[in-house]
Here is the input.
Amino acid sequence: MGHPRIIAIELDERSILRRSADIEQERRIAIFDLLEANHFDVAGHAGPFRVMLRVEEGRLAIELGDEAGAALDTIRIGLARFRRPIRDYFQICESYFRAVRSDSPRGMEAIDMARRGLHNEAAALLVERLKDQVEMDFDTARRLFTLICVLHIRASTTAVDSHGGHHASNAA
Here is the structure.
């Protein structure tokens, strides 16, 4: 029996127009933490898994490969129920990054609490949406939600201001 975990994960870079340095750091941390510890048990397949995430026609596509990289399956779920959490995530991240730059500890703490709460809600939604196809732990779902948000940058009207900040007005 294989190990029900993700051993490699990639984002479809063709779907991402640009990322700020802050969002790129979020992506790197999410991938690092995900690969360090995760539980990802796919119905009908033995792990470990190589995963490619992409958005196609408003749906999340999770391409699964085996340890050697041979294609196993693609799981697709609609993202309509994630639009609001994704939009809110970008707004909270932007506020958080501004607070970090202005060195406002009290502001950062409140924003970070809101960000964690949003992450928890979105992770629970992701677990629920995938429960018939994938069993995963809560931390894995949280990190996958971060990566789903990064994929949605391409679907937004993005601009990088003169300070390098990221603005996503329609991040769904």
Q: What stands out?
A: The chain is about 45% helix and 25% strand. The radius of gyration is 16 Å. Residues 155-172 have pLDDT under 50 and may be disordered. Residues 35 and 60 are 20 Å apart (CA to CA).
